[in-house]
Design brief:
- The protein is α/β, with parallel strands linked by helices.
- The chain folds into 3 domains: 1-37; 67-275, Rossmann fold (3-Layer(aba) Sandwich); 279-450, 2-Layer Sandwich (Ribosomal Protein S5, domain 2).
- It is built from 10 helices and 23 strands.
- It has helices at 75-80, 101-114, 128-137, 153-163, 188-205, 277-281, 328-342, 367-379, 405-414, 442-450; strands at residues 6-9, 15-16, 32-35, 69-70, 85-86, 90-95, 119-123, 145-149, 167-171, 208-214, 233-238, 245-253, 261-267, 270-273, 291-298, 301-313, 321-324, 349-355, 387-389, 392-393, 399-400, 419-421, 435-437.
- The strands form 5 sheets. A 9-stranded mixed β-sheet has the order 8-7-9-10-6-11-12-13-14, with helices on both faces.
- Helix 7 packs across helix 8 (367-379).
- The longest helix is centred in the middle third of the chain and has 18 residues, at 188-205.
- The mean pLDDT is 88.
- The structure holds thymidine-5'-diphosphate (TYD) and magnesium ion.
- Magnesium ion is lined by residues 101-102, 125, 171.
- Residues 101-102, 125, 171 line the site of magnesium ion (MG).
């Protein structure tokens, strides 16, 4: 039987019968590649040789009270994992090439090994000598971690079966290849097959397996998104190359909260955890016009950060709107609300908005802080020093309260802030000791804070 070719998107893994320049599913350009179909299984198998076993849901004896977890001792990592590494689970750590994934995982390997786990680090990108050199540089060369340099899936599974580790690291999934799949390493079917087999192995052999996946911009290499649905936990390691901060973010976690973040700093001796990120993100702040401190929340943890705006007369017929670390659509919305509800026009002005420290904010709670930064920059008037701002803005110009007010205020108080500007329905937290200013809506906020 002649095999027909299929076409697969390297970004999202969607397949189609014809090639096109743009993927219909995820709208990515130039990501569709030709792919041979997966080999059919050995004949018809409607009757399995083994009968599956079903157990009652109430049968707690099978799993115990909670999944067994091991802590690494690195608070930032353990929190992102949802309280430690879960036995028999599959994890994916994605991130841009060179962001520090191998460094992070080698350090984690050493920590878990010190805490009693049997750890093996399998690199498909570097030789064992190179990994040893890196370990030496990180001061970890005496850690009881086994190393292997391997890319063939069959060999890796054999190694894992023989070594029986508790924790295995596969660096990276794009370099692995299964010999029964007829395409190059890094292609969607190779990456999927390898990830699937490793995930199954993790469940059946009681080992936690971490797979590293490079985020690819374009070209013939499949990105980590094509295996996200197979694994239990998906973490992304992010950060700007120029900045030393790195953020480990959980976007999916079957064993804990998603959207949790851990903050690290890349130093000459590897990654160091940042226990008090708010203090760090605010450390180089000077209260100038356009600078506002936002009382944010990342996952379950409050985090203060600085939002900066610059507004300048535009030489162009279409003024620039440039955003780093926030949503451009949301900026357009805030500008429109300021213009039509508060009489603060931005016509003919270039607007630049930046979240300091390379942080990326997704919360609508930053609306009020962004509006404050924009008006402050436009009026060239600094905001009251030592005040922290948060609140959501609706299209009518009303201010809406946000979640976890208490935690945000307490974090602000802890860092020496003395006042807060929040929406009206926000409950006062006596314990925080902050003086609260609660404008009725955005127009009265602008009037109160910047009015003559
Ligand atoms: P790496 O872990 O190799 O990235 P990835 O596996 O995500 O591709 O990290 C590479 C970068 O990290 C490299 O540019 C150098 C930097 N680095 C340090 O700054 N300090 C260190 O101690 C180490 C090991 C790496
Ligand atoms: Mg690497």
């Amino acid at each position: 039987m002649a095999k027909s070719l299929t076409y697969t998107c390297n970004e999202c893994g969607a397949s189609s019968t014809k090639w096109s320049g743009q993927c219909d599913a995820c709208q990515a350009w130039n990501s569709i590649v030709e792919e041979k179909p997966l080999a059919a299984g050995p004949g018809k198998k409607s009757l399995g040789a083994r009968r599956g076993k079903a157990i009652p849901l109430t049968d707690l004896a099978t799993i115990g009270e909670a999944p067994p977890r091991t802590m690494s001792g690195v608070g930032e990592l353990d929190r992102v994992l949802g309280g430690g590494l879960v036995k028999a689970s599959a994890l994916l750590v994605g991130g841009d090439p060179g962001i520090g994934k191998s460094t992070l995982l080698l350090q984690a390997a050493a920590r878990f090994a010190r805490n009693g786990l049997k750890v093996i680090y399998i690199s498909g990108e570097e030789s064992t000598a190179q990994v040893q050199m890196r370990a030496r540089r990180l001061g970890l060369h005496e850690s009881p971690v086994s190393l292997a340099s391997e890319t063939n899936l069959r060999d890796i599974l054999t190694t894992l079966e023989a070594e029986k580790p508790d924790f295995a690291i596969i660096d990276s999934i794009q370099t692995m290849w299964a010999d029964h799949v007829d395409s190059a390493p890094g292609s969607v079917s190779q990456v999927r097959t390898c990830a699937h087999e490793l995930t199954t192995f993790a469940k059946t052999h009681d080992v936690a397996i971490v797979m590293v996946g490079h985020v690819t911009k374009e070209g013939a290499i499949a990105g980590p998104r094509v295996v996200e649905h197979m694994v239990d936990t998906v973490l992304y390691f992010e950060g700007e190359r120029g900045h030393q901060f790195r953020i480990l973010r959980s976007v999916k976690n079957r064993f804990g909260p998603a959207d949790e973040i851990g903050v690290f700093e890349m130093t000459g001796k590897g990654l160091a955890e940042v226990k008090n990120p708010s203090a760090l993100f605010l450390s180089e702040r000077s209260p100038a016009p356009g600078s506002v401190v936002f009382g944010g929340l990342e996952g379950t943890r409050p985090m203060l950060c600085e939002i900066q705006a610059l507004v300048a007369p535009s030489p162009h017929s279409q003024p620039r709107r440039s955003v780093v670390g926030w949503d451009a659509g949301r900026l357009a919305m805030i500008l429109a609300v300021l213009e039509s509800r508060c009489g603060v026009p931005f016509t003919g002005l270039d607007v630049y908005l930046n979240v300091a420290g390379g942080l990326r904010i997704t919360e609508p709670a930053a609306d009020l802080a962004v509006a404050a930064a924009l008006v402050s920059a436009r009026e060239d008037a600094a905001l009251p020093k030592e005040s922290v701002i948060f609140g959501e803005i609706s299209l009518s110009g009303a201010l809406r309260p946000v979640v976890q007010t208490e935690n945000r205020l307490k974090e602000a108080a802890k860092l020496g802030f003395t006042s807060a500007i929040t929406p009206q329905q926000t409950k006062q937290v006596a314990a925080s000791g902050l003086s609260m200013r609660q404008p009725r809506d955005l127009a009265s906020f602008v009037e109160e804070v910047f009015g003559e």
